Amino acid sequence: MNSLGYTLLSMLVRKPCSGYELKGYLELFWQAHHSQIYPLLNKLEKLGYVVYISENDPIHKKIYSITDEGKEFLQEWIQGKTAKPITRDEFLGKLYAISIIDPKRVEELFQERQAYFQKLATIHKKTLDEIDEQFGADLTGEGWESSFGRYLICKRRYDMDLAELEWCQWANDQYRQKFNNKNFSN
Amino acid sequence: MNSLGYTLLSMLVRKPCSGYELKGYLELFWQAHHSQIYPLLNKLEKLGYVVYISENDPIHKKIYSITDEGKEFLQEWIQGKTAKPITRDEFLGKLYAISIIDPKRVEELFQERQAYFQKLATIHKKTLDEIDEQFGADLTGEGWESSFGRYLICKRRYDMDLAELEWCQWANDQYRQKFNNKNFSN
DNA sequence: TTGACCATGTAATTTGTTACATGATTTC
DNA sequence: GAAATCATGTAACAAATTACATGGTCAA
């Protein structure tokens, strides 16, 4: 099984989910396409690590639940070595060449970046508030344990969004100062 | 050409580099293997977007330089749509299931995470200091323009390292509080 | 009735990872 | 003289992306 497969199992510890839901939750720290998720869930099901209960649920929606065997399998992975986090950021790839980018385009790139993370920050703040509302900010609500991991991860993501926004402002300011002083040329 | 290929071009705007160097610089925001980088550089060379000057340089080291055609090609990419940043984080994949992880292992996971980002923060701080030293903190040194992009990216990375470390401390504290209160069970 | 979102799947292609291969240099 | 780091390459395999394919729901 690959890392994404284990991660799907990990997310099913919190609550039974459909592939579509998993894709959404996953976006906090792992962007996966549905074309990866659905086949993996089918594989996990064949292996007996998840079961699906399509019961009375609307139309063609498959809610997966982790099995005890799935939990054991997951534990083995959790005990093993943890791979380093991976990032790939095209914006930064472009920014590397900032000295030869048209100033209008630079401003545009920063603006797009800020808008993107502003949107994410808003979404993640809302999610955090919802978790607090559901379980109580003093962490006393029922079922809290199973959502604790997601809560920590969501908080991290929100913190990172804010750090990214702060950096954006700083970097854009630096650029403007630089540009006004020396006019950059090149 | 793919995003990594364009990003390599972008990095060559700053200064001529070997594939090995590029791999190192890239690690700030894009983790690529040498088995991707070397073939891409050969491809870019065949297309005339980079040239290599192995001249008097030690043994088998190939220093690549971007051409004017390469810069034009790069500009087209920079003008186009920017793909969203990608992250994949196994640690967070494990953390999702924190409610069923042995507390000792949880502490270990947090410790490893902190050590990892502490190490990165130290490296990135050092790199930032070197850039400041080389060009002057008031951004007046010669050749500053071409390293400005790298400077911004390096600062971002350092900020993110610190944010990650702060979150780690917060999250570990939350976990300990939670664990001491309710003993988590499960 | 159009567009956004929910919902799942497969196939073709591209990208990324791991393994195979080699060899020099530097530091301890 | 052993280990780490510098340095480049290819091949086999695994994973991710994009395209193809289908169909339901809900709100403006």
Low-confidence spans of chain A: pLDDT under 50, at least 5 residues? none
Please report the total strand number of chain A as a whole number: 4
Q: What is the largest interface, and how many residues per chain?
A: A-B, 69 and 69 residues
Order of helices and strands of chain A: HEHHEEHEHHH
Largest beta-sheet details of chain A: 3 strands, antiparallel
Mind telling me the C-alpha Rg of chain A? 21 Å
Intertermini distance of chain A: 50 Å
| Approximate helicity band of chain A | 55-70%
**What's the arrangement of strands in the largest beta sheet of chain A?**
1-3-2
The SS-based structural class of chain A is mainly alpha
The assembly state of the depicted protein chains is: homodimer
Number of helices of chain A: 7
User: What form of chain A results from the Cα inertia axes?
Assistant: elongated
Overall number of domains of chain A:
2
Protein name (chains A, B): PadR family transcriptional regulator
InterPro entries (chains A, B): Tscrpt_reg_PadR_C, Tscrpt_reg_PadR_N, WH-like_DNA-bd_sf, WH_DNA-bd_sf
Domain Transcription regulator PadR N-terminal (chains A, B): 8-76
Organism (chains A, B): Carnobacterium divergens DSM 20623
Q: Any chance you could write out the topology, listing elements then pairs?
A:
The structure is a homodimer of 186-residue chains.
Chain A: H1 3-14, E1 17-18, H2 19-26, H3 34-46, E2 50-52, E3 63-66, H4 68-79, E4 86-88, H5 90-95, H6 103-135, H7 144-182
Antiparallel strand pairs in A: 1-3, 2-3
Helix pairs in contact in A: 1-3, 1-4, 2-3, 6-7
The structure holds a DNA duplex (28 and 28 nucleotides).
